[in-house]
Amino acid sequence: MCFxxxxxxxxxxxxxxxxxxxxxxxxPQQQIIxxxxxxxxxxxxxxxxxxxxxxxxxxxxxxxxxxDHTKLSxxxxxxxxxxxxxxxxxxxxxxxxxxxE
Length: 101
Fold this sequence. Notes:
Low-confidence stretches: 1-5
Oligomer: single chain
Strand content: 5-15%
Order of helices and strands: HHHHEEH
Number of helices: 5
Number of domains: 1
Structural class: mainly alpha
Radius of gyration: 13 Å
CATH class: Mainly Alpha
Helix content: 40-55%
């Protein structure tokens, strides 16, 4: 089982297939980043803006400061497609409530 799928317990089998597909196209380091993005989105108290998620994930990569050389690009969020999507007010949300389950 892939790294991402092993960390997330999703009930509908189609999400398992989505996670397997995501993992097959990602390198191990990208899988870790994708998991961290999903954790930020799933466990935040409110919907987060892309820069908030990317800053949190970036600081989790053993970076002491976020600057032009260390910040993650917004395309990094694409690692988690189609499990996340744009929400209201330029926030990132889970594509469906069953993803969080």
